[in-house]
């Protein structure tokens, strides 16, 4: 039995997309981040860092989204390469997301969407770095269909973040290979299902609805800025 503890965030979707793409049977529980459930003692026993996602497989807890993806890939034998070198390529691009794309886009979100004051140098810093990282992806995708050659967990991880580029205020104009890659992954049934677990954020935040964006940003701001539940 597998149970995923998650919320509708890019890191949360990394886990649910991987589970769906690999065909695992699993249950999920939505963690109310605004209510501080992730800080409760029972959840800290699963993830000492008090963050989502977390996965429990036969009483074995796994935390950190990248670690969950690697565990599932090894367990399933899918989307991870078949030898040391191909697996290393997947790991390199997975770590690129975890050490670069995720943190930079996350900080862009904080200063562009959530922080109560508009600190333009900080906004510029993280949006520019996010764009630079997108250009790294673009160069790689001009050489290969997917980041590590064949479709892998590295693509799933990066895609779950890059698809939210509008929320971070980072343009993908002039990056045709990145755009092609985004569309190709979005067309996959497992990905389409994965981004509805525990809910599809596209239903809550629409590109043409400024009010919904402001409402969501206000809820998130209370957690991001104060570190406490809303």
List the helices and strands and how they pair.
Elements: E1 2-6, H1 10-22, E2 27-30, H2 41-44, E3 54-57, E4 60-63, H3 65-76, H4 84-114, H5 120-141, H6 153-162, H7 165-168, H8 176-186, H9 189-194, H10 210-226
Parallel strand pairs: 1-2
Antiparallel strand pairs: 1-3, 3-4
Can you summarize this structure?
With 230 residues, the chain is α+β, with helices and mostly antiparallel strands.
Would you mind describing this structure in some detail?
Strands 2-1-3-4 form a four-stranded mixed sheet, covered by helices on one side. The two termini are 33 Å apart. Helix 4 packs antiparallel against helix 5 (120-141) and helix 5 (120-141) packs across helix 8. It has 230 residues and is an alpha+beta fold. The protein has helices at residues 10-22, 41-44, 65-76, 84-114, 120-141, 153-162, 165-168, 176-186, 189-194, 210-226, and strands at 2-6, 27-30, 54-57, 60-63. Strand 3 and strand 4 (60-63) form a beta hairpin. The mean pLDDT is 93.
């Amino acid at each position: 039995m597998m149970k995923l503890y998650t919320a509708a965030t890019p890191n949360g979707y990394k886990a649910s997309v991987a589970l769906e793409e690999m065909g695992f049977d699993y249950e999920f529980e939505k963690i109310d981040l605004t209510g501080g459930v992730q800080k409760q003692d029972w959840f800290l026993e699963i993830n000492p860092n008090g963050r989502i996602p977390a996965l429990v497989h036969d009483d074995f807890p796994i935390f950190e989204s990248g670690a969950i993806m690697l565990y599932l890939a090894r367990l399933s034998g899918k989307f991870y390469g078949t030898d040391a070198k191909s697996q290393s390529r997947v790991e390199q691009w997975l770590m690129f997301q975890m050490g670069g794309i995720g943190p930079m886009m996350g900080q862009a979100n904080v200063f562009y969407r959530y922080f109560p004051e508009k600190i333009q140098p900080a906004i510029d810093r993280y949006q520019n770095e996010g764009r630079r990282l997108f250009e790294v992806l673009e160069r790689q995708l001009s050489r290969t269909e997917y980041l590590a050659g064949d479709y892998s967990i590295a693509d799933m991880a990066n895609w779950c973040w890059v698809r939210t580029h509008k929320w971070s205020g980072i343009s993908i104009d002039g990056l045709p290979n990145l755009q092609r890659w985004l569309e190709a992954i979005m067309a996959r049934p497992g990905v389409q299902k994965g981004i509805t677990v525990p809910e599809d954020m596209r239903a809550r935040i629409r590109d043409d609805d400024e009010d919904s964006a402001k409402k969501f940003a206000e809820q998130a701001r209370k957690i991001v800025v104060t570190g406490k539940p809303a």
